[in-house]
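2024-03-11 09:14:02 DEBUG pipeline.ingest accepted 1 chain
2024-03-11 09:14:02 DEBUG pipeline.ingest length=306
2024-03-11 09:14:03 DEBUG pipeline.predict start
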Amino acid sequence: MVKISLGGYDDGEGPSNRIQKRLRMEQEDGEASRNEKEVHEGDGGEARSAEHDENPVGSVSDDKDRSISVTIIDPDVLDCCICYEPLTSPVFQCENGHIACSNCCARLGNKCPMCSMPIGYNRCRAIEKVLESIKISCLNAKYGCKHMFSYSKKNEHEKECNFLPCLCPHSGCDFLASSEELSLHFSHRHIHSGIQFTYDKFFTVFLNLDHKTIVLQEKNDANLFVIHNNHELLGNLIHITCIGPKSKTGFHYDILARSQGTSLILQSYTKIVQGHFADAPSAGMLLIPSDFFGSGQIKLDIRIRS
């Protein structure tokens, strides 16, 4: 569902000019009033005058929202047909009416890919005005996002939206919600299945050789983290991720492993993820040699820095 604001006057250049339309409406209303007065002169003039005074032309009521709600069956019509990104001004059209965004026009050498006619010189102002008028709600509205924004800002908002749904890291749970709601859910439903910790302080984790994931939850802000463990021939690949929206900032962390008087200090940076916790990211993995797992288990001291 999109919201399109109507009421603008097309002056041929730039955004819709509502002042021009208001002046035109005032002139039309003035002519209609004079005609009515000539026809009914002397017949209830005072009553008609009072009626017009209740809603004078140019009053606040003229400035009310004149928007309508419409349904676009195929929202792809608002995307560039070449790069499939949301259209943004300026939008160009060829002589046959095919449209493209400015980036694609330059990339294609100003040659329309549909008909080979020149493109990139004539603006399609009708489409630009439609794009200006359209306001859409976020795809994450059902997860709590209340933002309305221009269609051209769709991708930009989705990258920054704090209500991007995240999957519960507890095995077998399919709860999906914003990171804030997910933290509350985990605190109430799975509190005993995770390890509580505090930022900037070392805490101990006992990791088995075949452990795939261990969930961590910070005591103060309830942020959720996941320790990933992949067993390889040379040892175990360890990495920690943070659950949250893409706009969230990652965390630096330290891992201290000991074995028979040997200490190994590893440092890395958390990736931000929203799901698929069984598979750790390929980049940023830390290798703990297999001889550190003497009895099939290793003691790790971990510190996640705020």
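2024-03-11 09:14:41 DEBUG pipeline.report The helical segments are 18-39, 45-53, 102-107, 125-133, 154-160, 179-189.
2024-03-11 09:14:41 DEBUG pipeline.predict end
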